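The authors assume throughout that readers already know how a fold can be written as discrete tokens. For illustration, here is how one protein appears when written out as sequence plus structure tokens:
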Amino acid sequence: GRLKLGLWHQRLRLGSIFFLSFIVPGFFVVMMYRFGIISNMKLPDQQERIVPYFSTSFFYVFVAYQMYTKHFFDPFIYKTFLYGGFVILFSAIINVKFKISSHALSCASILGMLIHLSFYYDGQYQFMLLLSVIFITGIVSSSRLYLRAHDSFEIILGLSLGLVLGIISPFMIL
């Protein structure tokens, strides 16, 4: 069964999630750069993205597995991490053939998930949440174009694939 954790233990668990899903993958990217495995921290070359994406995906799936086996978190949370790992893995696989905007894919994935869930849940903040995510997705996508990190095709491909993944994701998570 689920254990009741004190505030200190909850913060420790959340800290470990942050460490394994953000700090460790970031450290791996820095080390790949330092050892010459990747030539640029921004990962502009699609082939150089593959190893960092696969390693990040591994850490997300590992965090989800740890949450699942330790029973310290609600199933929705570890399934969300598992889904995040699959989105990053999908992005890595697509990047073998096409360079896409993973920023756009991730934002659109969240948007697609919210769109799907909006058909099942009715809340007073639902519309504002959707508008906020649409706005953030637009800002992120526009900034990728402005910074010349991607062209419009890469952004549109990332947005399209992200929306599809997001719309089908609740079937995986719920």
